[in-house]
From TrEMBL:
Keywords: Coiled coil. It comes from the Eukaryota. It comes from Nothobranchius kadleci (African annual killifish). This is Uncharacterized protein. Residues 7-34 form a coiled coil. Residues 41-65 are annotated as: Disordered.
Length: 65
């Protein structure tokens, strides 16, 4: 009886840990995506700026590589 209960508790704990791991992986993926979006925005900004005024660009207001 007690052994059965302990096994059930352990299985529930394992399920919770699996869920938490999934959440962490999802959060990491969201952070990756946000970082990529920021890089894409910066690249777009750089292209627009290069077309407009090169002086500001040279001064390093926006660092474009």
């Amino acid at each position: 009886e007690r052994a059965v209960r302990e096994r059930e508790v352990m299985e529930r704990e394992k399920a919770v840990l699996e869920r938490e791991k999934g959440v962490m992986e999802r959060e990491r993926a969201v952070m990756e995506r946000e970082k990529l979006m920021m890089e894409k925005d910066r690249d777009t900004l750089c292209r627009e700026r290069q077309g407009q005024d090169k002086e500001e660009h040279k001064m390093g207001e926006i660092s474009c590589t």
